[in-house]
Design goal:
Distance between the termini: 13 Å
Helix content: 55-70%
Oligomer: single chain
Shape: globular
Order of helices and strands: HHHHH
Largest sheet: none
């Protein structure tokens, strides 16, 4: 949960780098919350998907920011997120980019976050 909150606290931070763990833990927790909200809406009989819409709206900017930082960590610009608009192939390529390991050294987006992080 701390990774999810870390991303939410840095919701407008498009600069810097984000480790794979930070990115994927955020995506995992957001997906679990989305699933839980979907179940709640189904049980309560809410047909407008109000809860899902509000949650999606609330995490849209943090998701864009953490994805940009994740791409920075692999040495790519955050603008690579626009690949999502390319049918089929774009999403797959973006998933591959976010799965790649960090550049081990400093790049134009900053220091490698693995070097600065204390073990949890």
């Amino acid at each position: 949960m701390k990774w999810f909150l870390k991303v939410l606290k840095n919701y407008i931070g498009f600069s810097g780098r984000a480790r794979r763990k930070e990115y994927w833990m955020f995506i995992l927790i957001a997906s679990l919350i989305t699933l839980a909200l979907g179940i709640i809406e189904m049980v309560l009989g809410i047909e407008e998907e109000l809860l899902l819409s509000l949650f999606s709206f609330a995490i849209a900017l943090p998701t864009l920011a953490v994805t940009a930082r994740r791409l920075h960590d692999t040495g790519r610009s955050g603008w690579w997120q626009l690949l999502m608009f390319v049918p089929l192939v774009g999403g797959i390529v973006l998933i591959i980019f976010t799965c790649l390991d960090s550049n081990p050294e400093r790049n134009k987006y900053g220091e490698n976050p693995k070097r600065n992080e204390v073990a949890y």
